[in-house]
Amino acid sequence: AESTQTPVISESVSTTDGTAIEVAANLGTPAEAEPAVDRGADGVGLFRTEFCFLDRQSPPDEAEQFAAYHSVCETFAEGVDSEATASKPDSEDEPRIVVRTADIGGDKPIDYLDIDAEQNGFLGARGVRLSLEEHADLFETQLRALLRVAATDAGAGLAVMFPLVSTVEELEAALDRVEEIADDLDSEGVDYAIPELGVMIETPASTYLADTFAERVDFLSIGTNDLTQYVQAAQRDLDRMNDYQDPLAPGVIRAIDRTVTAGHAGGAWVGMCGEMAGDPDLTELLVGLGLDELSMSAVTIPDVKTAIQDVDVESAEQLAASVLDAETRADVYDRL
Ligand code: PEP
Ligand code: MG
Fold first, then answer.
1. What is the largest CA-CA distance in the chain?
2. Residues near 20 by Cβ (< 8 Å), separated by ≥ 6?
3. pLDDT for res 116
4. How many helical (H) and strand (E) elements, i.e. helices and strands, does the chain have?
5. Which GO terms describe its molecular function (predicted)?
6. What is the mean pLDDT of the chain?
């Protein structure tokens, strides 16, 4: 109820001492782009493209995907005034639109792809694993569409990230695919550009590899929904596991801290696009942990932008240090 009353802030926001934090929207469909602009989104931090593959008989072709991704870029290019993008890490002219390649499997099965149910659990073939193996064809079509959008005027801020990466081999294979697709488009004489590239940090292994990943890509984006599930070994859709499925558990907070520090050391900017990023009560902690960008469902954007404007970075860092010392969840909540 509170969020509907908080005034929309359409320009970019900074902390009291001038640290700009990008506040972006999570989208499931292109139709959600305009409402997100209206709520003051600086850009898109997570476009969950798998929803373009759901509720139909066959996957969308390259033209359909091009149209979908381009329309999101256009809506933001038209709707967000250039001041609003000033906070974007490594700012360019157009708002940044982070598109995640299809994250299929786990809690997002797709009937027509006929994915083996046994391989498709949370610990099975899902996310980038499917894109590199069984569904290399879908990955290729999606990358072609994305590289073509990146070459358009509205697509200048396009960024692409890969879900559920847990090894350097997977990341390198995905980056190789991007290069191969670029070569194909080049030899076909089709306009393309290589967008900014990033990795989602959603598995314990990826938190330990964050510096290595960061040397290979432009950015990391922490998916706290899956990261919490895997760090806590507690399935995200089981009610009985609710107490474990808490990103404020000390093990998860320390995994986030490790990721931000390692990502920055490797030269990447680090964002967060899990549900945690949209909780205005946690904004000070997240700024204190050093996140450069927070991406969330559009409805919470005004509250989080308002919260950022009240944050003093030095106190936020003290809060983060104190929370990182906590040994139990109760202790975390006390310190918050
Ligand atoms: C996450 O895991 O935190 C995330 C943002 O991705 P999804 O919720 O779509 O799995
Ligand atoms: Mg996820």
1. 60
2. 12, 13, 14, 86, 87
3. 78
4. 14, 9
5. kinase activity; metal ion binding; phosphoenolpyruvate-protein phosphotransferase activity
6. 94
CA geometry: angle 114, 117, 122, nearest 5 deg? 120
Whether residue 1 is predicted with pLDDT greater than 60 in this model: the reply is no
90 is in an annotated binding site: no
The tokens for 59 are 């996957």
Q: What is the whole-number distance in angstroms between the Cα of residue 103 and the centre of ligand 2?
A: 8
Strand pairing class (196-201; 219-222): parallel
Mutate-to-test residue for ligand 1 from 52, 103, 164, 227, highest number of ligand atoms within 8 A of CB: 103
Residues within a 6 A CB radius of ligand 1 = 46, 48, 103, 202, 223-226, 273-274
pTM greater than 0.90 (yes/no): yes
Find the range with the poorest average confidence among 5-19, 91-105, 131-145: 91-105
Residue nearest to atom 4 of ligand 1 (CA): 223
pLDDT tens, 33-62? 999 999 999 999 999 999 899 889 999 999
Atom number in ligand 1 closest to CA 225 = 3
Q: Are 200 and 170 in contact (CB under 8 A)?
A: no
Q: Confirm whether residue 225 is marked as ligand binding.
A: yes
Residue nearest to atom 1 of ligand 1 (CA): 223
Q: Judging by beta carbons within 10 Å of its beta carbon (0-12, 13-18, 19+), is residue 234 exposed, middle or buried?
A: middle
Ramachandran region, residue 324 (left: φ > 0; alpha: ψ -120 to 50; beta: rest) = alpha
